[in-house]
Amino acid sequence: MRPAGTIATNERDTLRKGSGMTAALRDIERQVLGEIWSSDQPYRNLVQLCDGIGHRFGGSASEHAAAEFLQRTLRAYGAERVWIEEFPVYSWERGECFFALSAPVERSFAALGLPYSGIADLEGAIVDVGAGEAEDFARVGQRVQGAIVLTDAETDLPAVEGSHRADKYRRAVEAGAIACVFVNRNPGLLRVTGALYARRPGGATVLDHTAPIPGLGLSYEAGEMIRRAASLGELRGRIRMHNRLFRSQAYNVVCDIEGDGSTRECIVAGAHYDGHDIAQGATDNGAGTVVALELARTLLPHAGRLPRTIRLVWFACEELGLLGSWHHCDQYERADRNETLVFMLNLDGAGRGQGGHEQVTVTGDPALAAYFLQMAEELAYPFAVRDRISPHSDHFPFFLAGYPTATLQSRDATQGMIGRGWGHTEADTVDKVTRRGLQMGAALAARLLLRLAADERLPTVRRNPDQVERVLDAVGLAHTLTHHWGRANRVV
C-alpha cells in the first residue's frame, strides 16, 4: 500500500499517456464531477462574497475582506499551500458627481464618476462622437478640442470589433477634450462605470495617478435625451466632481494543487475577485471567483496524482488595469523560481449564464485553438472555440510574456444585451447568476484542467518577444506593448 497523496509509477505513466483520456484520469474526473454536481457550494460562496462582503473594489477594505475570505475558505477545503502576493496600488474613493445640460435646455442627470477621476468644476460644448471609434473622432475633427466628449460605452456593431473604454478615452484625451462622458447602450436607467488610466505613469504622487481628464458614466435613457436635445441647438454641459485617490495595498491569493513530482511544469488558472464599487460584481467576476474556489474544493483531494501542478490564483485589481495579473506574471521571471509555467487559463466570465453555452477563447494561437477543438470532441461535451486577442483581461500579461493562454467564458450571460450587459452597472447582482451555470462552468473548467495537467500534447512553446510583437502587429495591437492602460496604473 502506498502512502496517501502519492502515485504508483505505472499509474503515473498512464496519466501522462496521450490525451489523458485514460482509466486513471477518468476515475479522478468522475469523482470531481460527482462533487460538483452534488453541491451548491459555489452559489453559497457567491452569496457570501457579494451579499456578505460587497463590491471588493481594488485596494479597498472590501477587497481586503474578500482576500481573507478566500484564504479562510481554501484552508477549510484542506489546502496546505496558500499564500498572498501583496502589491502597492493607488485606490480610489468616489465623492460628489454632478452633470447637467446647460444648453439648449437645462437638465441635470444622475451620473457616476469613473475611477481615477479627480476633482473638476468645468463647463463646455458637448461633442457627440457616437460609437467612439477612430473614424468617429476623425469625423468631428478639431471640434473635440476644449469640449466634453459624449460616446457610447460599448457597442455591438455588425462586423466591427468595438473599441474598449480605455481606447475611446485615450482618443478623447489626445484630441484635447476636457472630459469624457460614457453612455450605457443597455436600457434600464443603469449608469455605467469603468476605470481610467493615470496621467503620468510611474509617478510618485496622487496627482500622477489621477486620470488626465474626468470621466463620467450615464444611463442609456440619459444619453438618448441628450442626443435628442441636439436637435434644439448646440449642446453644452456642466460637470462638477470631487473624488479621492489614496495609496493602498492589494492582495492576490494563490493556492497550489501540487503535481506528482515528475515535472517542474505548472498550469495557472486564475479569476479576478475584485469588482466596481457601485455593485456586487456577481457576474464580473464573482462567478469566476467561486468557480475557481470550486476547483480548489474538488481537485485538492487529488493533489499529487497529476504530473503538472495546478496553481489557482485569485487576482486583485483586474478592473483597475489587470494589476494583480501583471504582478503575478512577473514572479515567473525571478531567477529563484523552481517551476516552469506552461499555460494560463483565465476564468473571467466562467460560470455565468444558464450553463451549456461555454466558450474557450485562445489568444492568437491557431495550434492551441485546434487543440481545444479536438478536446471538445474527446470530452463529448461541445463548447465553442475561437481565436481572439483581447488586451483587457487577466490572460493578457501572460500572453505578452509569451505564455500560451485561453479564457473560459459563458456566452449566454449577456444574451440580448450589448457589451458586458449587466457588468459595470449597479445591476450586476447575485440574482443574475444561476446555480446551474456555476456548476456547469466549474465542471468544464475542472475537466479542462485535468487534461491540461496531464496531457503531453498540450502546446507549451513559449513565444519570444519578437514573435509576440508580430502576432500583435497582425491584428493592429502592437501599441499595447508600450501603451497598455493597465501598465499606466501600476505603482512602481
Offer a quick outline of the entry.
This protein is α/β, with parallel strands linked by helices. It is built from 15 helices and 14 strands.
Q: Would you write up a description of this structure?
A:
Helix 2 runs antiparallel to helix 12, helix 3 crosses helix 8 and helix 8 packs across helix 12. Strands 1, 2, 3, 4, 5, 6, 7, 8, 9, 10, 11, 12, 13 and 14 form a 14-stranded mixed beta sheet that branches. 33% of the residues lie in helices and 22% in strands. The chain is an alpha/beta fold and 492 residues long. The protein is built from 15 helices and 14 strands. The N terminus is likely disordered. The N and C termini lie far apart (52 Å). The chain has two domains: 322 residues, 3-Layer(aba) Sandwich (Aminopeptidase); 154 residues, Glucose Oxidase, domain 1, CATH 3.50.30.30. Strand 1 and strand 2 form a beta hairpin.
Helical content (DSSP H or I, runs of 4+): 25-40%
* Total of helices: 15
Top CATH class of the largest domain:
Alpha Beta
Number of strands: 14
Radius of gyration: 23 Å
Shape: globular
Give the end-to-end Cα distance, rounded to a whole number of Å: 52 Å
H/E element string? HHHHEEEEHEHEEHEEHEHEEHEHEHHHH
CATH topology of the largest domain: Aminopeptidase
CATH superfamily of the largest domain, called what?
Answer: Zn peptidases
| Number of spatially distinct domains | 2
Q: Determine the structural class based on helices, strands and strand pairing.
A: alpha/beta
Low-confidence stretches: 1-20
- How much β-strand is present in the residues? 15-25%
